[in-house]
Amino acid sequence: RTINQTHYLCYQPALLSMETKKGYNDELDANFKLAMWTTAWQVGISWFTRQGTACTPLPGVIVYGHVWELQWAVDTVDTVYFIKHPEPIGNTATVAGCYRLLAAIRYLVSVWSEEVFLPWFIETVVRGESN
C-alpha cells in the first residue's frame, strides 16, 4: 500500500493532478485522464481511511497549450464530481497571464495545501479518523 499512485512518489501525498495537451481538440481526453488520475489517488487513499470517508476536494489542472484551467474533484463518497473553474487560472502566452498563473499555483501549494489538504490528510489518513 502506498499513498500515491506514482511509484517514485509512493510515500508522498499528491495534492494536485495535472494533465497537459497541445490544444483544445484534446479536451475529452484531458478530462478523462485527469479524472482517472484523481480517482486512482482517491481509491489508493481509501485503503488508509475508514469506509465511507469522503476525500477532501482536490484540485486538478489541465494545460491546453498556453492556457491553464483548474477543476476541483469533489468526493461525495458515492460519486466524484468535477467542477470547472469558470475562467482559466492563467496562461504562459503573456506576462500578465504568467503572473496570474504563478499566483494561483502559489495559493494552491501554500495556503490551500496547508490550511485545507494537510489538516484533512493528517486527521483522516495518518490518524485514520473519519470526518
From TrEMBL:
InterPro entries: PDDEXK_12 (IPR046797). It holds the Pfam family PDDEXK_12. Residues 2-117 form the PD-(D/E)XK nuclease-like domain. This is PD-(D/E)XK nuclease-like domain-containing protein. The lineage of its organism: Eukaryota, Fungi, Dikarya, Ascomycota, Pezizomycotina.
